[in-house]
Structures are given as structure tokens and as C-alpha cells.
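Deliverable D2.4 — example input (C-alpha cells):
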């Protein structure tokens, strides 16, 4: 039994969740305790009790502990990557890559812990000095999604601890395995009891208890738009600081002057890899009519070469979707798109493999328009809609015609169009001749419109959320 971690102790929960491998439904990854609302409250109270001493710790002390966490993650990346692939369904290469990123994130923020910056501003009044400093926010509640079960927790937990906050962490109910292993590593890194707490369980129970607790100073959430709205309402109701990353309906523009192979590579990787279960996935392929027929043929050829199978099998391109609920949602959107008149070019079927799992063939729809639900709503699966346009100007209008604004890409050989797109795409991240999915750990991550709310995540910009600014005047 894998227990919760509260105030420095491993504590059994009120219930148990059986973690099942989506590549092989006969494979039990493990049994994980489910905390109740009372245990979530205990974790928050422990975090509050530990907050003062942890905030007063030196940057070097915090750096040493975070570096130990990062080093162990990297040393165990093959083992942890295999666990990640078993519980979430990513290919083994992707699982190991995600663990590697998590380790790098902890090491990056180990460095940031000793680089917390302030300012001494010019004097405006005689005999007065002005200092601007950053201080911890306090107790941070972290609620993470299932699609990146160790990288997203890492890029929330590491900066929270680096800047002197205490943490109550609730992972996605579907993927407790990586979260538990991360908590176990943190539990041995030297942190005092209460500085870091893990409470596993249902969002409606454990997550809501964290959101509503008056001692939680800030909430960092990544998940669906619907849940995000509830998170915002709960946090703002009691004036807690809140940061949210939610959905995406990301465009990839393919202009007539694009290199065909580059464009296909970007589209395949962005739309279908990791089973399309990324908020940065290229689910709208906006293609200029001059290249449209060739691009469509090349996409079909490349898709026919993709291997969908057990995530742990060799030479697999795409694993299963995460669970039956997501599989049903994929199928529902296939039906919706067909009903709207989109032309299904390839894919969109449940697949049978040697092991029973949630296998689904990547789907490509052609001849779509931007008013279709398949072009407006996030499927969160390997489903892409191709939309023909006459010109770059038309493509830009279509790209920006969405309630989301996370990532946007363009494939072109024109510096003029690439530069214009970077300046005018209504997205937080813009890619030129590379896939919309994939962001380095040292740069800010986040979007606009309905995709994000609050400060950016990752890199030095993380300080904007995990610290509060203090202005101090001194008469001299």
C-alpha cells in the first residue's frame, strides 16, 4: 500500500485506488491510499506550522535539498520512466524523457534558490532609501493533471520550495504512482516535517478541501477548463492567489512556401505523439490551398507508418490513451465531426493489440471549417482537423479565432510571415518550423485567453507566482 505523506509521516487514507496500466489492463501498477477531506486539512495545517521556519531557511539550504531530489530523479530515470509509461501510457522513450526533464527542473530551481533577486531603487526623497524584496507566499496548494505525471508536479513543487513556500500536493487521481515516487524522494532529501505534503484522492474531495482551506495562500492548478473555472471561483472567493493552466486548441499554419517534410513532421509530432494528450497539441492544421493536396497525401502516408501499441514495446510511436473515459471522448468527437460534414481521411478506430488496452488510431479530418466543434473544442486525443485557407492573412484570422491561446505554430520559408506571425499570433507560445508541443524547462510556459490565468510557470518567471513583493523604506 502506498500511503499519503503528511507532516513528515506516511499515513494510510480512507480508501484505496487500484492503479491500472492502460497498455495492459491485467497489469496492476500498485495500490494507492485515498485521503479524505480531514487528512487534506491536516496536511494544510502541517504546512502552515512549518511555513515560518522554512521561509527563514537560507537559499543554500533549500538549494542543497532540491539538488538532492533532482540528482536522485536523474539517477533513477530509467526506472521511473518505465513506471510513468505503465501508469499513463506514454511510450517508454517519452516516459524516460519526461523523468529526465523533472530531474533537470529540480536542479534548475536549486540554482534559483540562491539567485532570488531584489532591487535598491534610486532615492526620490532626501534621507530615504527604498528596497524591493521578494518573500514566500506561504502555503501553496498544488493540483496537477494526469498527462504529465512527474514533469508538471516538478515544475510546480520545485519553485514553490525554492522560494521558501510550503507545499500541499494533490496529484491527478489517475496517475498516483509517479507522484508517490516523487514524494518518497522528497521525503528523504532533508526537508522538515510539514514543508512538503502529499495527499492523494479525488479532486471533488481532496482538491476541494485544499481549495477551500483558509490557510492555503496560493493555488497552482493544471487541468480542464471546466475544473479551472471552479478552482478560480473557490480561490478568488477567499482572495487566495491563483495560477491556472487549462485547455488549448492550438493552430499549426502550413503555408504554400513551407518545406513539405518539415510541415508533416511538425504536424505528426504535434497532433498525434503522446496520443494527442497534451494541451499544446496541434489539433487545428490550417493549410494554404496551394500545398493542401500534397500535404494531405503526405500526412496520410506518414500516419499509415505510425505504430500504435503497448507503451513498453520497442519501436512504438504511440501508446494507448489514458483510460476508458478518454477513449469514449475520442470516439464521441469522431462521431460529432462526421455529423458536421468533416471528411475522415484516416483513423479514429479502437484497436486491438496483444495486450488488452485503450488503443486508438490517430484520426485526421480534412475539409473542415473553423466553426465545427472539432475545430473549437479540445478533444485531448490524437484527432486533428485540416482547415483550407486561401492566404496567410486568412490563416492568421482562423488561427486567432478561438477562445484558447496557449501555443501556435507556423511552417514557412518566409522570414516576413514568420516574423509577422510571432508578433500577431494570439498565443503565449509561438513556434516557427517546429511542433507546437515541446517547451524547455528554463523558459516561461503559459497562454492567453481561456488557456491560462495568472502568472507564467517555469523558468525565472515562476517567481512572479511563488513570491510576493515587499517595498521597504528606511530613513537614513
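Example output (designed residues):
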Amino acid at each position: 500500500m502506498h500511503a499519503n505523506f503528511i507532516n513528515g509521516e506516511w499515513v494510510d487514507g480512507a480508501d484505496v485506488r487500484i492503479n491500472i496500466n492502460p497498455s495492459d489492463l491485467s497489469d496492476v501498477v500498485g495500490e494507492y491510499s485515498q485521503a479524505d477531506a480531514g487528512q487534506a486539512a491536516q496536511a494544510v495545517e502541517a504546512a502552515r506550522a512549518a511555513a515560518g521556519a522554512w521561509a527563514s531557511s537560507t537559499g543554500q539550504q533549500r538549494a542543497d535539498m532540491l539538488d538532492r531530489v533532482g540528482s536522485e530523479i536523474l539517477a533513477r530515470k530509467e526506472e521511473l520512466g518505465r513506471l510513468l509509461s505503465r501508469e499513463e501510457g506514454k511510450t517508454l522513450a517519452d516516459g524516460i524523457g519526461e523523468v529526465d526533464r523533472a530531474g533537470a527542473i529540480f536542479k534548475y530551481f536549486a540554482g534559483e534558490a540562491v539567485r532570488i533577486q531584489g532591487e535598491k531603487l534610486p532615492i526620490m526623497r532626501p534621507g530615504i532609501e527604498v528596497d524591493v524584496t521578494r518573500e514566500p507566499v506561504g502555503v501553496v496548494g498544488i493540483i496537477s493533471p494526469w498527462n504529465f505525471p512527474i514533469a508538471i508536479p516538478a515544475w510546480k513543487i520545485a519553485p514553490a520550495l525554492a522560494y521558501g513556500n510550503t507545499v500541499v500536493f494533490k496529484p491527478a487521481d489517475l496517475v498516483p504512482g509517479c507522484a508517490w515516487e516523487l514524494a518518497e524522494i522528497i521525503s528523504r532529501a532533508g526537508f522538515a516535517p510539514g514543508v512538503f505534503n502529499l495527499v492523494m484522492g479525488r479532486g471533488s474531495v481532496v482538491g476541494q478541501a485544499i481549495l477551500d482551506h483558509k490557510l492555503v495562500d496560493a493555488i497552482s492548478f493544471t487541468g480542464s477548463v471546466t475544473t479551472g473555472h471552479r478552482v478560480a471561483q473557490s480561490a478568488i472567493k477567499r482572495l487566495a492567489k491563483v495560477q491556472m493552466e487549462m485547455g488549448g486548441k492550438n493552430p499549426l499554419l502550413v503555408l504554400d512556401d513551407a518545406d513539405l517534410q518539415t510541415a508533416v513532421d511538425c504536424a505528426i509530432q504535434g497532433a498525434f505523439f503522446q496520443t494527442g494528450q497534451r494541451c499544446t497539441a496541434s489539433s487545428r492544421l490550417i493549410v494554404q490551398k496551394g500545398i493542401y493536396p500534397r500535404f494531405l497525401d503526405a500526412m496520410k502516408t506518414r500516419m499509415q507508418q505510425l505504430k500504435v501499441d503497448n507503451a513498453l514495446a520497442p519501436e512504438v510511436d504511440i501508446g494507448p490513451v489514458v483510460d476508458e473515459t478518454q477513449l469514449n471522448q475520442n470516439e464521441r468527437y469522431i462521431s460529432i465531426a462526421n455529423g458536421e460534414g468533416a471528411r475522415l481521411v484516416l483513423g479514429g478506430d479502437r484497436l486491438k493489440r496483444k495486450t488488452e488496452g485503450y488503443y486508438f488510431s490517430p484520426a485526421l479530418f480534412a475539409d473542415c471549417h473553423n466553426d465545427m466543434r472539432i475545430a473549437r473544442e479540445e478533444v485531448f486525443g490524437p484527432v486533428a482537423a485540416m482547415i483550407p485557407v486561401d492566404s496567410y492573412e486568412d490563416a492568421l484570422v482562423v488561427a486567432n479565432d478561438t477562445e484558447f491561446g496557449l501555443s501556435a505554430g507556423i511552417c514557412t520559408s518566409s522570414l516576413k510571415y514568420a516574423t509577422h506571425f510571432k508578433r500577431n499570433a494570439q498565443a503565449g507560445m509561438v513556434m516557427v518550423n517546429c511542433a507546437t508541443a515541446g517547451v524547455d524547462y528554463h523558459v516561461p510556459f503559459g497562454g492567453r485567453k481561456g488557456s491560462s490565468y495568472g502568472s507564467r510557470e517555469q523558468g525565472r518567471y515562476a517567481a512572479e507566482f511563488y513570491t510576493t513583493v515587499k517595498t521597504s523604506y528606511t530613513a537614513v
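The first helix runs from residue 37 to 55.
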